[in-house]
Amino acid sequence: MRGMRRARDTPGARAESGTRAASGGRPASEGGAKRRRPWLRLPRLSALRLPRSRRGRRLAVQGLMALCVLALLPATWMRLGADARVGTTADAPAREVALVFGAGLWKGRPTPYLAHRLDAAAELYRTGKVKVVLVTGDNSRVEYDEPDAMRTYLTARGVPDDRIVSDYAGFDSWDSCVRAKKIFGVDRAVLVSQGFHIHRATTLCRSAGIDAYGVAVDEPRDATWYYGGTRELAASGKAALDALFRPDPRFLGPQEAGVTEALASATP
Q1: Tens digit of pLDDT for each residue in 65-115?
Q2: What is the dihedral of CA 142, 145, 149, 152, to 10 degrees?
Q3: CA distances (Å), 186 to each of 133, 134, 142, 192, 256, in order?
Q4: Terminus of the chain with fewer CB atoms < 10 Å: N or C?
């Protein structure tokens, strides 16, 4: 059963920016000349100087180091907190549901990183560790449908269509975790993602009330991997706030019976 699609609101009429003169379409400034806007000037680089005193420089360095530590705290907390619950497909415990996070499409098909996540989910299904695969991703535009592309990929690799459930409003990791719990009724799950993301995903799903174990899909240390790891530093800050305040996802909607029905069909 398909998850609920998110309707895109039609944007209202936009007001024209800037004031136009009644004739000629020129800006309403005297003589048509552009006025200077001194408040838009950037500060001169020469004005940005380090403190001259040794004590001032020491305080500046200490302040910079403190900012770096604060920036790393959320990612460090998530890694340490979830490390014991992250492993490979061989390490994963038996759960009824595998939750696969979207990772982008290229020309309508899963990107290599997303394909590797789906390969791991198919392996979990083939080995009997999960009975149902919940694919969660973005379908905010008609021409962009991550869950359907993920379903097509999985069925081509032997996962029956009636064992796949789609969540079309998994716009980020927190939304996917909360919707898995509140909309699809998932209490325990194996999460599937790359190593740089799985600790954050596991922490968020646990905060959403899911007994989660994360499967870290191995990837070569290429430019994409390093980009993903760097991006996690920024994403971890938002994730820490999500775990602390537990906001509702962008689209919640009514409860779905897709996972329950798929599990029922899997019972002999």
Answers
A1: 666 655 666 666 666 767 889 999 999 999 999 999 999 999 999 999 999
A2: -60
A3: 11, 10, 27, 15, 11
A4: C
